[in-house]
Write a structure and sequence with these properties.
single chain; alpha/beta; Transcription Regulator spoIIAA
Length: 130
């Protein structure tokens, strides 16, 4: 089933969200400290649930290229990771990439913490190019 990609443009407080379904490539990038994280991430969760529900044993990649996120956004990212982990446990081939800036120890450590929670999804910790 083909569905329209989810594209949410980046703002000063919210990340860009690009779910390219035909290529099974999902991505969050930028900064995440929306006034209401629940409100911002609701359509992202809904789209991810629908996508993963139809993925079955297929393959997908999710890139996190976040420069900054606040605590409520970190909870939302953890929920996204949980959804990806559940899909992997159910047979999907899930690759999670966490990109961090070379000089950003905080985001590197956060990525490491998220990665430790994943058992079935494959986690990659990568430095951002440039």
């Amino acid at each position: 089933m083909m569905r329209d990609p989810l594209n949410i443009e980046q703002t000063s407080r919210t990340p860009a969200v690009v779910f390219d379904y035909p290529n099974n490539h999902l991505k969050l990038s930028g900064e995440s400290y929306p006034e209401d994280a629940t409100e911002f991430y609701r359509p992202v969760f809904n789209a991810l649930d629908e996508y993963l529900g139809s993925l079955g044993e297929g393959r997908c990649r999710f890139d996190f290229e976040l420069i900054y996120l606040n605590s409520s956004s970190a909870k939302a990212v953890m929920m996204l990771m949980d959804k990806l982990e559940d899909a992997a446990k159910n047979g999907a081939d899930v690759d999670v990439y966490w990109f961090y800036d070379n000089d950003d120890d905080t985001m590197q450590e956060l990525g490491e913490e998220f990665g430790e929670e994943l058992e079935s999804a494959v986690f990659h910790l990568e430095k951002m190019a440039g």
